[in-house]
């Protein structure tokens, strides 16, 4: 029963019809949802007001924490980095729950696995709001090798020793 804001990130990669279908799906389930894109800037300015509208003020003295979760390479760190670069008085801090959090901007990359640990970024002051960057969440096992190769080919899965050329050959010749 915790508040949740669903960000459908990289919305610029799907058609308007698909965007409307996804919005309708979450709205039917009474979920607060935003279509976002760091690349095109879509709704990036709407994230903080949306978080402010759903935050619980039970622990106002330590602020509100929102975890940014999803599969690898969907842009979790990019969202936080984009918000951090906006003219908000924000700072990267070790969060109250994870003292190992470092004082640096989120690192981003084209391959999965760049974010190695949980880190907290202050994105709003008074009331204090923190976004917690997390490593990608992924299924522990992919039973279908073809699915694994397709995921590796599009950069969503890092398979040691497999090149894109090898994956492309295997997918197109099987």
Describe this protein's structure.
The structure is a single chain. With 174 residues, this protein is an alpha/beta fold. It is built from five helices and six strands. It has helices at residues 16-28, 47-54, 76-85, 145-153, 164-172, and strands spanning 5-9, 32-36, 64-68, 91-93, 119-124, 129-133. The strands form two sheets. Strands 3-6-5-4 form a four-stranded mixed β-sheet, with helices on one face. The chain has a two-stranded parallel sheet with strand order 1-2. It is globular and about 60 Å long. Mean pLDDT is 75; it is low at 87-104.
In summary, what is this structure?
The protein is α/β, with parallel strands linked by helices and 174 residues long.
Report the uncertain regions.
Answer: 87-104
Largest sheet: 4 strands, mixed
Morphology: globular
Number of helices: 5
Topology summary:
Layout: E1 5-9, H1 16-28, E2 32-36, H2 47-54, E3 64-68, H3 76-85, E4 91-93, E5 119-124, E6 129-133, H4 145-153, H5 164-172
Parallel strand pairs: 1-2, 3-6
Antiparallel strand pairs: 4-5, 5-6
Helix pairs in contact: 4-5
């Amino acid at each position: 029963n915790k508040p949740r804001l669903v960000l459908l990130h990289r919305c610029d990669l799907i058609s308007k019809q698909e965007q409307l279908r996804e919005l309708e799906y979450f709205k039917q389930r009474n979920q607060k949802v935003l279509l976002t894109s760091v690349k095109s800037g879509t709704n990036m300015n709407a994230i903080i007001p949306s978080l402010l509208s759903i935050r619980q003020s039970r622990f106002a003295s330590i602020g509100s924490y929102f975890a940014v979760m999803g599969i690898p390479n969907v842009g979790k760190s990019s969202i936080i980095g984009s918000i951090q670069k906006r003219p908000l008085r924000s700072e990267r801090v070790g969060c109250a729950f994870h003292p190992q959090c470092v004082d640096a901007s989120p690192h981003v990359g084209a391959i999965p696995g760049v974010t190695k640990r949980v880190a907290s970024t202050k994105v709003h002051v008074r009331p204090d709001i923190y976004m917690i960057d997390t490593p990608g969440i992924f299924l522990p096992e992919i039973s279908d090798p073809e699915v694994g190769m397709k995921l590796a080919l599009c950069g969503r899965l890092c398979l040691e020793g497999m090149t894109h050329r090898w994956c492309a050959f295997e997918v197109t010749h099987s």
